[in-house]
Amino acid sequence: MNLALSTCDLCPRSCGVDRAAGERGACGADGRLVVARAALHFWEEPPISGSRGSGTVFFAHCPLRCVYCQNAVIAAGEAGAEVSVERLGEMCLELQEQGALNVNFVTPTHYAPEARAAVAWARERGLALPVVWNTSGYETVAAVRANAGTVDAYLADFKYADAELARRYSHAPDYPEVALAALEAMVEEAGGPTFDEVDGEQRLTGGVVVRHLMLPGALEDSKRVVRLVHERFGDAVLLSLMNQYTPVLADAAKAGDARAAATLDRCPELAERVSDDEYELLLDYADELG
Known about the structure:
Shape: globular
Order of helices and strands: EHEHEHEHEHEHHEEHEHHH
Number of helices: 11
Largest sheet: 9 strands, mixed
Mean pLDDT: 96
């Protein structure tokens, strides 16, 4: 039995439920390890995907469950199949055989003990790829420390600098302070960005990439995120600023989804896209900061 699941505190929600006995945590997961997808993925940041693809493993469920989630079916646990730790390790080896640049665990927080065990199992059998921990940023410092020796690089969201936005969209007003503490631990554990070369392309082999998705009408908060990360970490992290927010709630509401319609009633701004002008203003601001 996985003792970490018996009073689960793997994420900052620290819901304490007995997932090992079948109870579902705040993330929606019980004691089963569920993978939604394992395949080469070509749309991460260039030093992670390159032209060969990143070996992504998408885990079902999510501790954060943002109302605007772009992968809501996976986050809600509505897609996926139960696998063993050994099968997860085999997936890592299969992705390596397919030419992946890395093993990229997407939203693994609530399955961290199993993910680490699978990597250890696979490394004993020849896994030589860097391991990327692709996370919402909503991690405990203890969880980051526990990844030492397993995780080579972090691809970590920093979603909000404002606690009210974090409460409004992710029911997590503690997100800014929790994510910042976790990010500091990630930088301490993974160090500055390191690269090697594969097929003439740079591959990230270590360090931290901070990813921020702009949200509609939240330019000032995005500026605060950029300033905070820059002032605290400087060149110790890489920054990925994204403008591809998609108003999936609007599509769902049009299709008759009552929950999506209710969310839009409360947060009508989420029916909009981020304008090119707003994105350029954020990039200009980042340039001004250096």
